[in-house]
Write the C-alpha cells for this entry.
Amino acid sequence: MLKKRGKIMQILFVLGIGVVMLSSCTEFFTSSWGEGAKRDPSKVKVTSSNAAALVRAARGDPELSRTILAKIAGMGGGGWSPALQVTAVRAANQGSGISKLILENVGLIAKDTTKTTVEDLLDTIKASAKGNHVDEISGELKIVLDSALSNNAFSSDFLASVNESDLVLLFATLVIADMGDDTMEDYSDGWSGAPTAGMGIRNFIWAAAQGLRGSDTFGGPINEILGEII
C-alpha cells in the first residue's frame, strides 16, 4: 500500500508540474479583435499566422479555445505545419479543461488514502471531465495530427516543436475520450501492446506515450502510468 501511495503521489506531482508549466505565461486579450472574440467566439478569424497568438490569449476560455481548434481542423488540405499542429494541441488542452481538472483533483486524491493506483487517478479525472467536449476535441485532434503520425509515432518535427507538458495533457485527454463509459481498469485490460494501423485514437495515444517515455522530466512517472495502462 505504501509503495502504491508513493507512486500515485509521484505521478500527481509530475502532472501538477506539467499544468503549472503550461499556465505560467498567461497572456490576455489587448486588441479589439481579441475582445470581439471573447464576446462571440464564433466570429474569430483563425489563420495559420495568428492561431498561436489566439490560443495563448484564450487561456482560461475553454469555449474560445475549442472554437480555435475547430477552425484549425477545418482548414483542410493536410497543410498543417508542425507549429500549427502544436498550436492545435494547446487549444485542445485548454478547451478540454483537463489541466484545471488535474489541479482540482490533485489535492483530493493526495488526501484520500483509498486512492492508491493510477487507475484511481484517471477514473477521478474522467468523472470530472464529463461534458468537457473530450470526444469532439479528440476527433479534431486526429484530423490535425494525422500528417504527423507514422507507424504509431509522431514525426521528429512535431516532437521537436511540442513541449512535454503539452504531450502529458494530450495523452490524458485522448485516453479519457477513448475510455468512454469504461473504468480505467476495464479500459487498460483492452490494451495489448502497440495498436495496429487504423485503430484511430489509440494510434495517437500510443504516439503521445512514446514521445514521453524518454523524457528527463516526465519519463519515470509517465512510464509508471503507461506500464499500468498500456
